[in-house]
């Protein structure tokens, strides 16, 4: 397998014609991610293609710039690598690591829910990611099953850093997915690193139960439930998992785990994780409880099918292009 150094294209002047375009792996508000093969090296990547005009219209230039800068900074075994970036008059592109196992969300929905051991294995990796990001003052702010990918080895890779932000103290932007939003974000009190630990609590609950703790047909109903803070734990919940989730889903920031003086250590030393070697986890020495069915490096069968888009977005005039230094 190629090393990360060999995969790196950041020193090259790239164009979309350097790649053979394959299946669409996912779509979003500003574009799509496609499986691609770099023609000259034969290596496989995920190419994130975003429409400049749509980003400018929705006033998301800063978010997208921030995503690229943050991804360029990060190097962690459980975070998707960025190997290059380029642009043309219509699009900006990010060349990302291709994660063959597909979306965590798909595997969770297929399974219905995960058992205690599997949930613990994934929660531990997210804990490591947040600990690492927070040391760099980066708050992720958008944890949800759709933003986690699973590699062939069964370990996770966090992707989509569009909402991530370098925050020294606090910020006030409302962002995130309704079921995962922390109370301090809803109350617009200013938020920072503790929001990530709240979302970890939501994810653990969703993995073990099969749905998040605060659900409603209507986002306003979800927000009311989050602020009311009443959580029901089904009998299937392991008692130590329940204890940790309660400590993460604490509206009081002075009591929320991850935000106390020991930081992430309080979570890592919690009884739920007592049999886990954190060093072995980071070194990927622990056998994953589940490995996706993968036929090879070019397999895209773990991703859903998306219709192709035939509509070309308008080109952005060079004099009005905020992405000239992309």
From TrEMBL:
Any Pfam family: Pkinase
SUPFAM superfamilies in the record: Protein kinase-like (PK-like)
Ranges for domain Protein kinase: 19-273
Domain AGC-kinase C-terminal span(s) in chain numbering: 274-326
Name this polypeptide is given: Prkaca protein
Annotated family: Belongs to the protein kinase superfamily.
GO cellular component, one term: cAMP-dependent protein kinase complex
InterPro entries in alphabetical order: AGC-kinase_C, Kinase-like_dom_sf, Prot_kinase_dom, Protein_kinase_ATP_BS, Ser/Thr_kinase_AS
């Amino acid at each position: 397998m190629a090393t990360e150094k060999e995969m790196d294209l950041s020193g090259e002047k790239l164009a979309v014609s350097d790649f053979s375009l394959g299946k669409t792996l996912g779509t979003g508000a500003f574009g799509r991610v496609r499986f691609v093969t770099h023609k000259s090296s034969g290596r496989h990547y995920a190419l994130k293609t975003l429409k400049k005009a749509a980003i400018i219209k929705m006033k998301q230039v800063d978010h997208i710039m921030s995503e690229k800068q943050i991804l360029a900074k990060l190097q962690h075994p459980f975070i998707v690598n960025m190997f290059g970036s380029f642009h043309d008059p219509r699009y900006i592109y990010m060349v990302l690591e291709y994660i063959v196992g597909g979306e965590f969300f798909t595997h969770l929905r297929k399974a219905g829910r995960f058992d205690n051991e599997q949930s613990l294995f994934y929660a531990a990796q997210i804990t490591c990611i947040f600990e690492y990001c927070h040391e760099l003052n980066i708050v992720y702010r958008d944890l949800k099953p759709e933003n986690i990918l699973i590699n062939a080895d069964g370990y996770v890779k966090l992707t989509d850093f569009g909402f991530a932000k370098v925050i020294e103290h606090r910020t006030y932007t409302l962002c995130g997915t309704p079921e995962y939003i922390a109370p301090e974000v809803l109350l617009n009190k200013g938020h920072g690193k503790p929001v990530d630990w709240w979302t970890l609590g939501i994810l653990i609950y969703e993995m073990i139960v099969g749905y998040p703790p605060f659900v409603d047909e209507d986002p306003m109903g979800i927000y009311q439930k989050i602020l009311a803070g009443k959580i029901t734990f089904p009998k299937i919940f392991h008692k130590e998992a329940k204890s940790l989730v309660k400590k993460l889903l604490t509206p009081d920031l002075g009591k929320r785990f991850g935000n106390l003086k020991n930081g992430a250590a309080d979570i890592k030393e919690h009884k739920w994780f007592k049999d886990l070697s954190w060093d072995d986890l980071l070194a990927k020495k622990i056998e994953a409880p589940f490995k996706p069915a993968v036929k090879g490096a070019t397999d895209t069968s773990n991703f859903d099918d998306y219709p192709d888009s035939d509509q070309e977005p308008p080109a952005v005039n060079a004099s009005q292009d905020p992405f000239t230094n992309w």
